[in-house]
Design brief:
Number of domains: 2
CATH topology of the largest domain: Transferase(Phosphotransferase), domain 1
Helix content: 25-40%
CATH architecture of the largest domain: Orthogonal Bundle
Shape: globular
Radius of gyration: 20 Å
Distance between the termini: 45 Å
Order of helices and strands: HEEEHHEEEHHEEHHHHHH
Strand order of the largest sheet: 1-2-3-5-4
Amino acid sequence: MLWPKRGHRRSRERFGDYHVTRLVHSGEKSFVFEAAKVTPEEPVAIKLYTWSYDRAAAELEGKYGLQSEAEVGMELNPLRAQDADDCPIVATLGKGREYGKRRGTRYIVQEFVRGVGLGHLIACRDPSLKDRTQRLAIRMCRALQAVHRKGYVFRDFCSDNLIVQKGGVLRLIDLGFVAPPGIAFEERSGTPSYMSPEQIQGKPLGFETDIYSLGVVVYELLTGELPYVSRIAGSDEQSVRRRGRDVMQMHLREPVPQLPQELHSGAAALCEALPRCLAKDPEERFRSVEELMAALR
């Protein structure tokens, strides 16, 4: 998506000093653009909320006393510039409000992460994943460790929020649901296929909530499939909602699926840890990602 020269000045004003070079993602919650400043510089990502999501996010922030996504992102940034390249979480560079719109919504400026979504690699059955499963699992733990050490629960840990960069470096993106532990959200926020039982039931959330979701991603990484898949078909809105509710009920009631026996020889530590990650009762899971990492090593 390139802005015409006549509108160049106007496009810059839309996001302050940045001008948009292309649309990267369009979703229900937000649009993500690749952008840059007028002077040659590394590109950035601009995450622009949709009007409906901006309103909903503001209501949740007020209701539960939450910080905004941009504020959380700034807090999760590495303290030293030299640590930025090794940070497993996308860096937040700034925030603003879209200019020139009657209903201008909030936007967040983040570093532009080049890579491929882990969910896409799994769906494509990328052969390189087989030899990198253990390392990717450890990197996932490191990403959650960085969030938990700052006193937050990620709440939407899924393969689509993980980007694999060149060399197997893994980065965690989309900080929109990050919140302090101990909150019981009435709203079922998250991705149904990865939600923990306590998240579905509206109970207080803790670090074990993210460990459950990490377990779902590890299961997906090992098998190429999600542990719980609904048989409800259809792409219309009603079918999608029914399918989401069906999957959530499976997380609550269905036993943890058994891994194929042939996986145990090549990924014994992961296979042994997985049932504990996916325990229905958070008290039966690993108490921290550090404990899980020790088990994997």
